Amino acid sequence: MNLVFLGPPGAGKGTQAKRLSQERGFVHISTGDILRDAVSRGTPLGKKAKEYIDSGELVPDDLMIALIEEVLPEGRGVIFDGFPRTIPQADALDRLLEGKRQEIRWAILFDLDDEELIERLTGRRTCPSCGEVYHMTFKPPKKDEICDKCGSALIQRDDDREEVVKRRLEVYRRQTSPLIDYYDSKNKLIRLDAGRSIDEVYTDLLRFVDEEGH
Ligand code: AP5
User: Which residues, in sequence order, are CB contacts of 35 under 8 Å at separation 6+?
Assistant: First the structure.
C-alpha cells in the first residue's frame, strides 16, 4: 500500500512517517531529507536546490519528478513524505506508479492551525548525523541540544527561522493545498487531526493502516 503524507510544514509528517515505516515496513521517501542530504554533500542537485530551500520556495517540478523516478523502489509499500507538492508532481507520480501497476491508496492530510505549526517549527531541532528529530518542548532530548541516539550536537534547520517559516506556509497554501481537492475528488483523502500528541496521532494512524491491511 502506497501512502502520501500531505500537510503544511511542521504538521508532523516526518515524525509519524519515520515511526510507521520502522514498525510496519514501509519505505519512507522524504524529499526534504533527500534534498538536505544532497545540499550537505554539495551534489549537482544540492547546488540547484539550496537557494529554493533556504528561501522557503519549492524546488522546480522537473528536478523533483526526476528525483522521485530515481528513488522509487520496486514492490514495497512507500510513504511519500513531502511529495507530491504540486498538481504536476501528483500527476507525474500517478503515471510513474501506473507504469509499475501500482497506485496511491490514500493521501493522509495532517491538519493543524498556523499558530501551532510555527511553534512546532521554531522549536524543532535535528540531528545532523543520524537524522533524529526533536522538539525543545514536545519531544526534548535527554541532554540539552545533544542527540539521545548518537550523541551529536543538535542543529536548527536554516529554513525553520520564523521569516522563512511564514514563506513556507504561504507556499503551502498556494501551491500544495490544491492537492487536498485532487485526492478528495479521487476518494483517496483521509483527514487526520494532527493537533494531538505524537503518540495520540500515531495510535490513530496505526489503527487506520492496520485496518486497511498493509
Ligand atoms: P520538507 O523537509 O519536506 O519540509 P516540510 O514539508 O516543510 O515539512 P517539515 O519537515 O518542516 O515538517 P513535518 O510535517 O515533517 O514535521 P516534523 O515531523 O518534522 O521540505 C523542505 C524544503 O525542501 C521545502 O521547503 C522545499 O524547498 C523542498 N522540497 C521538499 N520536497 C519538495 C517537493 N516535493 N517539491 C518541491 N520542493 C520540495 O515535526 C515538526 C516538529 O514538531 C518537530 O520538532 C517534532 O518533534 C514536533 N512534533 C511532531 N509531531 C508533534 C505532535 N503531535 N505534537 C507536538 N510536537 C510534534
Answer: 45, 46, 49, 53, 59, 67
